[in-house]
# Entry
Amino acid sequence: MLALAASAVAQTPLPWSDDDVTAIARHGPWPPSAPRDASNRVAGTQAAVVLGEHLFNERRLSADGAMSCASCHVAGRDWSDGRARAVGRGELDRRTPSLWNVGFAHWFGWDGAGDSLWSQSIRPILDPREMAGNAGRVADLLREDKALACGYERAFGHRPGGDDETLLIDAAKALAAFQATLVSPRTPFDAFRDALVAGDREAAARYPLAAQRGLKIFIEANCAACHFGPRFTNGEFGDVGIPFFTRPGEVDAGRLDGLAKLANSTFNLLGRHNDDASGASALRTRHVQRLHSNFGEFRVPSLRQLGSGPFMHNGHFATLEDVVKHYSDVSPDRLHSDALPLVRPLALTAEQSSDLVVFLRTLSVEVPPRPAPPPLCP
Amino acid sequence: MRLLAGLLALVIALPAWADCPLDLGRGTGLVIFSSHYLVAFRPEPVRIEIGEPFSLLFNVCTKNDKPAELVAIDAQMPEHKHGMNYRPTIVSLGEGRYRVDGMVFHMPGRWELAIDVRAGEESERLSHELVVK
# Structure
């Protein structure tokens, strides 16, 4: 053990230019300040977080009582399910997205059809392909289940009254309050980043050389154009050359359809359920534009706590190695760009590919099992 | 500071446009001009963050002191030939001043602002490059 520890600090960090250090510094610090959603009046309140976690695990929200949010967003699987494509009442067209750091996002779902975490939380409850629930079922549960009614009263300050839709929205806001607490832990990369910024060469040298080489590739390939900032995502959308077809003759239009759904949603931030009187939280929704180029674009995922795969919006790649191979070999013709393409074949050697994978794996750590949520009304 | 120095130098160099107020309220800003127009602007907040909405405050002037207006604004990344994912809106604040809301630069790199201005029947597009990191 001592020998291992000694070898871990014996190496020398790679030479990093000032520009490199600046680029690396932008991926931290981690964790950031807790997210705050002005559109959700119970965001950040402990009672709503507890209620939200209970609702997250509540199978009675679904039509047949067989499915909860946690059925697909499994804590022990980085809040996804390890499947290429999600399974609701049948197989769906996209992978279950991880919920790590979801509270920091501004668009939700692979197509960004949701503009708030609470509105996004409504979608699977009502979707006939997923939980197939309805507002009346959710409202009845909150009114009639003593523990949930008590948890609701603690979170919202009054008994669960009002119409069914109002209670559905409130349930979604409690669900969002809980999900916003799912902030991924610090990683070996974060220790390296902080050491580099602080000029602590000894601490920086503990970061594996292969990971450092992979990080250099990440910087030189300009991956941060999309995988930007502390979350390693700019939160927007891109087409990186993954096939559009969901089955013969059918395509997933991605962001193009997502924006149409957003505009038609009565739960978007321009609607009456937004708790933010200032209107500032609706700025993106007010100004976002739907472009033909949005066809086939999907949300840029965070690279933190990537999980063990499959990867991409539709689980197209089984392993991280497959993902790196894609970026190494991707066909420029498929991306039909007439400018400097954001995604271009990196033509990596086997060693470079391996280094890039090692780097990406340092953005994750083992997470201890999640304890059961505290009782609603002890 | 460099921007402020540039702005001051421009005011000194162009006494004919000295009536065009270039200070947009925070003592700093960017100035671009053509043979007919002088446009001062600054972002709000002053530092543009990647992926975060920001506004632009404009003052649009003409060389011959005729009223001028801001007609449209857009931005794109010339290298990648893509624009913003957001459509900004322009609100006139009177006397050639404008507020543009809903700007978002969603990637780091070089962005080119396209600023369409008009005075009477004459219109012109001015451009300015910004590098955001």
